[in-house]
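Why should sequence recovery work at all? Because a backbone constrains its sequence more than one might expect. Tight turns favour small or flexible residues, buried strands favour hydrophobic ones, and helices have their own preferences. The token representation captures these environments compactly. In the example below, the structure is given first.
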């Protein structure tokens, strides 16, 4: 596949995800490098939806360590159970936060972040990374985001 996305912005968000996910799969197909695939995935998500920040944190020992991302500079290390990312890791579950100011223990990497969704990447039942997506708008994520991003995670897990 050419390194170019074909996006129809007249579609609903759910339809846009259905259009985008196969393109991410095609873009990463046959590429064995984890960082290259994670990088193109975050770039595709940001290009498609204009997210404020999108990136991966990788599990390394007892911390999440910043991986490929797009957006403003970010927190480099996050402890298990801390903030939205650490909570997603600890629970091995998606965490959707409509207003980060209302999330107990939220880690403010950027004061411009208003809402967030974090989706774990599971390999052999263990969290190996999390996908973190931030918006500068309140309540910007919904069931469509959660469903589509969770659908993407088995592909991502295959790169680890």
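From this structural description, the recovered sequence reads:
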């Amino acid at each position: 596949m050419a390194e170019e996305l074909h996006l129809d912005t007249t579609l609903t968000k759910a339809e846009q995800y259905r259009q985008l996910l196969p393109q991410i799969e095609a873009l990463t197909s046959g590429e064995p490098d984890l960082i290259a695939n994670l990088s193109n995935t975050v770039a595709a998500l940001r290009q498609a939806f204009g997210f404020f920040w999108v990136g991966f944190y990788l599990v390394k020992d007892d911390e999440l360590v910043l991986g490929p991302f797009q957006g403003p500079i970010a927190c480099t290390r996050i402890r298990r159970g801390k903030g939205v990312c650490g909570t997603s890791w600890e629970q091995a579950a998606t965490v959707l936060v409509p207003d980060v100011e209302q999330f107990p223990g939220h880690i403010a990497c950027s004061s411009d972040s208003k809402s967030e969704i974090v989706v774990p990447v599971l390999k052999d039942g263990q969290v190996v990374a999390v996908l973190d997506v931030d918006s500068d708008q309140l309540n910007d994520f919904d069931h469509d985001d959660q469903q589509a991003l969770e659908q993407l995670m088995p592909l991502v897990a295959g790169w680890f």
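A few observations help interpret the result. The longest strand covers residues 126-135.
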